[in-house]
Amino acid sequence: MDSRFGTRIQLGLTAPEFRGIQLVLRLPGTYPRNVAVLSVDLAYRSWSDLGIVVLDRVCTDRPGTEGDLISCEILASVASDEDRGCVDANILAGRLNHLANLRGIRVIMLDGPQAWKSRENGLEHSRVSERQLNTAAKTGLPGMVKPVTYRAFAEFCLDVYDALCRRGWSRLDTFSQPGLPPERVVVESYPYAAWKSLGLKPLPSKRRCKVSDLAEAYENLRSLIPITTTRPPNHDQLQAIVGGLPGLALDEHNAAGARIVGNPPRREGGHWREGFIVLPVAPGPTQGLAGWEPKAFSMNSTTR
Length: 304
Known about the structure:
Structural class: alpha/beta
Radius of gyration: 18 Å
Order of helices and strands: EEEEEEHEHEEHEEHHEHEEEE
Strand content: 15-25%
Helix content: 10-25%
Number of strands: 16
């Protein structure tokens, strides 16, 4: 079925990681530009809790607005009719990888921890990025988290990162040249801190978020950054949108458009340790999105 967003197809693939996926695909030559980012608000208890959005900067032909519009395509689901229960990390990674390949996407933003803490980072219970952002949930040494209820989600997230890396992706590992990511990079986001970084009131947790809170946060974001969405976003999808914004800056080699927090990821004792969290920065009053400048903000202890 065709739509103004492209062509919706049913993928007739038999592997579990592809079976039953419905995607909206643009036909060749209909992309407004060649930079797009896949952003995911991760969840492991149910496929329906995933928030998946493709962010694409659209070059308009109106004078003074070139490059100022971000199109956010909200994907209803990457689940098949046969998916039941908890999300399988390897299957999810396969579907995200396939979607990225179809769209020519080089940056995937994931809201969830990518690694354990390093034994030598000088902190007792957390990664450097988590300490700098004062997160409530802490990823400690392998198998250790605070609070303990966070462990299942943390291990699921690490499995998703690892599964993507087995498919040719790499964790963002550059600090001195933040505008030059590798060809296909997976990046950790943190939506709560992203809202604060933009100078906006963070969206309340999903359990506490009212419809009015969601509408207010959506309008506040649109008043700061010109975005369009293919449908009104739910909580998970709006978190994916705000968390995915710095991915565009990374893919565009715009070092001023992203704030990188923490230490580079590295292998230690057979496990991945540390890793950056990347945040957006607010556009300046006259710069538009092509010239983002950092904006001062403060962090309070929060969960994802």
